[in-house]
Amino acid sequence: MYENIIKKWERDKKILFLSGSKKGCGKKYVADSIAKNYEIIKCKPEELSNNDNIGIQCMFGSNKKKIIIFYLNDIIINNLKYDNNIKIIVIIDDIILSNKLVKIIKKHYHINIKLTDTQNINILKQYITIEPENYLKLLVNYDYDLNAIINNFYNNTEKISDLFTNNSLEYINSTKIKHFNIKDYFNVGCEYSLIGLHLLDYDKNININSKETIYQSIINSEKTKLSKELYNYTILNSLVIPHKVIKQNIKKNKIKYTKYISKSLIYIHMLNTNYDINPEDIYTIIKTYNNDKNETEFINNIEQYKLSKKKLKYFIKLHDLINQQNNIHLLKLF
User: Fold this and answer.
1) pTM of the entire structure?
2) What is the chain's alpha carbon radius of gyration, rounded to the nearest angstrom?
3) Quick one: which of 202, 179, 188 has its CA closest to 258?
4) 11 and 72 fall within a common domain
């Protein structure tokens, strides 16, 4: 598809820039395809001269030229020296290119990947098998992000990895999902449980009965999470039902990042690094202080556990969350 540009670049010492009209449109795929004819190396931009092809060829008689693939975000493009025998490809993740970058690119070679619907669908057919009419719908749901689709689906039943996690909030707050029918939900290969937790935290204009429905639905999804046979049932409970319940309430108030994930990670790490401490012991000390207000005794009791102030803060916060209290002021005693 881009043979003429590639051939000219191969005969030159200039850089080949790869960009795309869509995120995940196959830039890395094109780079890897070109690199098959070369020896791929890894080094920092400032180390390029130390990895020059000529020296290697003299020592080992290698006929393969070296090639290195950089991501623009990982390098300072103005400092990149290309007057050596190593072929250089730079992948640009940004969709919109700055005027400064455009000026630099004009001095080199550039491939801007723009695929038609037919080309996108033909690529998908090599990796996943679904009903023919659903390929285009899947592309639209993913904003034509081929990389995310291919990594998230394996014959539309098994998620290989979750590249969608970082965009789950953006997706759940988009206008697109508000118009989903039931089938559409099952064509979003993402971290369903994470989106479910985002929804679980949402409390704007949600009555207690609706909240209870969401909680029960999330609990039901946990029971089937590890079963491939019940995969669709998991999606139903972790995403479809919670989203349908609150769908009418998210017109103005956006879904925020779930507190459950960050707090859980903090407390799991805290307990792993303080495995000899029973949290209940700390809670008992806090309860005792609240009853007798004996600061000296409270300080002595806490100090025996040799907790840092930061870790003590998390123990107090967790205690307060469980007991609906506010004892964070106790940190001032240390």
Assistant:
1) 0.53
2) 27
3) 202
4) yes
